[in-house]
User: Fold this.
Amino acid sequence: MFNSDLTKHLAELSKLEFTDEELEQMTADMTNIIAIMDKVCEFDTSKPAYALDAVDYKDLRADEHRNSYPTEEIVKNAKNVKNNSFVVPKVV
Assistant:
């Protein structure tokens, strides 16, 4: 399926360099990834999407409106607050 020659070729195309040990490990990893993808391909997609739902929507709780926690209470211990929001340093 996936051999070291193919791994070498892909590494060359990707401008990657591997030691022999790393090449062997990468080949094993790629073989495992392809095996997983082959397993995914076996998934039966002929069923409608709704039939695949694991949740029975009638069993969910009803949405209930509740008041939120008071903003003043949330920000009372913050060091820096502006317009009822936490002020944090800008990170670029």
